Amino acid sequence: MKGIIKKNAVALTQELDWLSKIINTSIKLFLGQETEYKSIYDIQPPDVTLDESFYAEIIKRDQTSIAERIVLLLSIAPHIKPEMLDVFLIKNENLNKNFTEFGGVKDVKNNGFIPTGETAAFILAMNNLEKRFNLFNLFCDDHYFSKRNILHIIKPKGYEPYLSGALVLSLEYLSYLTVGVSKFTAVHSDY
Question: Which top-level group of life is the source organism from (predicted)?
Answer without folding.
Answer: Bacteria
